[in-house]
Write a structure and sequence with these properties.
Largest sheet: 5 strands, mixed
Mean pLDDT: 83
Structural class: alpha/beta
Distance between the termini: 59 Å
Order of helices and strands: EEHEEEHHHEHHHEHEEHHHH
Low-confidence stretches: 335-366, 376-387
Strand order of the largest sheet: 5-4-3-6-7
């Protein structure tokens, strides 16, 4: 088959695709890692967030002799942020070049900008000859309802425009492949340390995109969780999903008490047992104790008795694991010039104004009275009373 590639001689490459009815290729190192991971007797939990991915695991038997609690945080480093900013700058430059090329080729479909119109008026007032505008900067010629008089697909496009579009498509495909490769590499590192038996909250990533938009394209939490699910299955385990409404992991403590936190509160402080740690790591630790017998995410329940037992058994090691990452994975390894960026609080305007009535992915569902108005938030979720 022939595929368009702007960087190749002539702009095209020829490929032969072969379909093999069988499992995909895995390198010997990956196969060895999967065999070692399948032998790990550990249970773990995953907490996906907009800016990071937190993982905490325990020995399956909760025996201190067999191991200690381990935690990992996948965050963006300075080098990664600089690379993303550089790619975004190149992408904006390509978009501007495409727009200039389209405007220069279809000058009749665009009007003059305010600056160009004022300059034409000054030249006319001085009696000078009107200057030809090669790239009009105004709005597109449209009808009264805002619909362009000529559809975009009817515009004339130059050869330079076609070349720019090919370079843009090639860069987008390369970026997407890099993100998939990074997700697979991070998933392998996590499974090699924490084992293939993990649990994650069943969150709707589309809700996050409505709140934070393109910021999620840098950390790609949905792609990381999908890669984790594939990696766990390949290593002989599974990634179980638990509903946020039936577990409310971010609103509970390992001791079983409910610790209500708003979305901007990133630190967990329990008054009952005195446990202090990062909110994401505490949620990941609680996810490890979700009942594995649940066949559906909505039927998942948190085993508070087992989580309390683990808190007592691993008291000192658990405190350390919930404060900082104890097993660095990819994108968390410090090296020369790579220093962890302190996470900044990013809050949208409606969250600054006050708490909304609609629950966010990691907040409990608000209780409403008979008139349909939101009432006071209960101290304990009704669905978790028996637990």
């Amino acid at each position: 088959m022939r595929r368009r590639k702007a960087s190749a001689p002539g702009g095209w490459v020829y490929e032969a695709h072969l379909m093999v009815l069988g499992p995909g290729y895995s390198s010997p190192a990956v196969r060895e890692m999967r065999q070692r991971s399948a032998m790990l007797e550990r249970i773990g939990g995953v907490d996906g967030n907009v800016s990071n991915l937190s993982v905490v695991s325990f020995p399956a038997s909760l025996d201190p002799v067999e191991g200690a609690p381990e935690s990992s945080e996948i965050v963006l480093m300075n080098e990664e942020r600089a690379r993303l900013e550089k790619e975004a700058k190149k992408q904006r430059g390509r978009a501007r070049a495409l727009e200039r090329s389209r405007r220069a080729t279809n000058t009749a479909q665009y009007g003059l900008s305010k600056r160009q119109a004022k300059r034409a008026e000054r030249r006319t007032a001085k009696g000078l000859k009107p200057k030809a505008v090669t790239v009009p900067g105004g709005a597109r010629d449209a009808r009264s309802n805002g619909v362009p008089k000529q559809a975009f697909h009817r515009d004339r496009l130059s050869n330079g425009y076609q070349g720019l579009r090919a370079h843009q498509a090639e860069a987008a495909a390369s970026t997407a492949e890099y993100r998939r490769h990074r997700a697979r590499a991070v998933a392998r590192d996590i499974i090699a340390v924490h084992g293939p038996h993990l649990t994650v909250e069943d969150c709707d990533i589309r809700t996050w995109y409505r709140l934070w938009g393109k910021r999620l394209s840098q950390t790609t939490p949905g792609m990381l969780i999908s890669a984790l699910e594939t990696g766990c299955k390949a290593a002989g385990g599974r990634l179980m999903r638990a509903s946020t409404w039936s577990t409310a992991l971010s609103q509970h403590c390992l001791c079983g008490e409910r610790v209500t936190k708003a979305l901007q509160d990133r630190e967990h402080k329990c008054i009952a047992c005195g446990l202090v740690g990062k909110r994401d790591l505490v949620s990941a630790a609680l996810a490890a104790f979700v009942d594995p017998a649940a066949a559906d995410p909505s039927t998942a329940r948190l085993d508070s008795a087992r989580s309390r037992h683990a808190q007592i058994i691993f008291s000192e090691g658990l405190e350390e694991a919930l404060r900082e990452s104890t097993t660095p994975c990819q994108n968390t390894l410090p090296s020369a010039g790579r220093v962890a960026v302190p996470r900044q609080r990013v809050t949208s305007a409606h969250r600054i104004a006050g708490r909304r009535d609609r629950a966010t992915p990691d907040e409990p569902r608000p209780v409403r009275d008979h008139a349909g108005k939101p009432g006071p938030r209960p101290a304990c979720s009704p669905r978790l009373t028996l637990w």
